[in-house]
């Protein structure tokens, strides 16, 4: 298998994991923007690792379901009872496990991107670099997807970067609404009732 074929084979779990990890962690980072860098790093890293394991198991489950469906179709076409314990089944199972593993690792890697600035900068500066790095990662993932699929490189790269910026805007809006609600005592009684129940 050539390098390009290998990249095509694993591009989906890499991009899905990296985008999921980076964008969900960016939301955590923005939501906790008023916290200390240590809290932001802890929240982002623990959320990213949990998300990575979750994606790994979810990807394996989804891929295995699809694989078994495909094998069932092959069994029907071959008028064969089962393909379990065959080379085909073993090869497909290995592929499923490796794709799930790559998805999880890519998620954890993606989650690191918005957190890295907090190791070196204060919260006020780190948030802007966090959004910028996440957008840059999204651009490069879009660029890679376009290279492999033959789509417009600039268009797909910019589209992915814009999605990261939209996530940043949405996360900031939610944080500001919640902060305004607490300041105006709008949410405080509601949340207090929820905690008492």
Give me the secondary-structure category.
Answer: mainly alpha
Estimate nothing, just give the exact number of structural domains: 1
Q: Calculate Rg over CA atoms.
A: 21 Å
Q: From N to C, what is the helix and strand string? A: HHHHHHH
Task: Classify the beta-strand content into a percent band.
Answer: under 5%
Average pLDDT value? 78
Q: What this model shows, in words?
A:
This protein is mostly helical and 197 residues long. It has one domain. The chain contains seven helices and no strands. The protein has helices at 3-31, 37-78, 87-115, 117-120, 123-149, 153-183, 188-196. Helix 1 (3-31) crosses helix 3 (87-115), helix 2 packs antiparallel against helix 3 and helix 3 (87-115) runs antiparallel to helix 5. It is elongated and about 65 Å long. The model is unreliable at 192-197 (pLDDT under 50).
For this entry, give a set of tags.
7 helices, mainly alpha, 197 residues, single chain, disordered C terminus
Break the fold down into its secondary structure elements and pairings:
Blueprint: H1 3-31, H2 37-78, H3 87-115, H4 117-120, H5 123-149, H6 153-183, H7 188-196
Helix pairs in contact: 1-2, 1-3, 1-5, 1-6, 2-3, 3-5, 5-6
Summarize this, please?
By secondary structure, the protein is mostly helical. Helix content is 87%, strand content 0%. It has one domain.
């Amino acid at each position: 298998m050539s390098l390009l074929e290998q990249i095509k084979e694993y591009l989906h779990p890499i991009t899905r994991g990296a985008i999921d990890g980076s964008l969900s962690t960016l939301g955590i980072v923005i939501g906790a923007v008023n916290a200390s860098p240590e809290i932001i790093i802890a929240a982002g890293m623990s959320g990213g690792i949990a998300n990575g394991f979750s994606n790994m198991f979810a990807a394996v489950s989804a891929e295995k379901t699809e694989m078994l469906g495909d094998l069932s179709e092959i069994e029907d076409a071959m008028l064969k009872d089962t393909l379990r314990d065959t080379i085909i089944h073993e090869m497909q199972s290995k592929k499923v496990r490796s794709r799930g593993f790559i998805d999880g690792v890519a998620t954890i890697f993606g989650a690191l991107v918005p957190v890295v600035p907090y190791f070196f900068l204060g919260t006020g500066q780190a948030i802007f670099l966090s959004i910028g790095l996440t957008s840059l990662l999204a651009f490069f993932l879009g660029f890679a997807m376009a290279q492999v699929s033959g789509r417009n490189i600039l268009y797909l790269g910019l589209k992915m970067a814009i999605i990261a910026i939209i996530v940043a805007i949405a996360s900031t809006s939610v944080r500001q609404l919640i902060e305004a609600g607490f300041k105006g005592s709008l949410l405080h009684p509601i949340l207090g009732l929820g905690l008492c129940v």
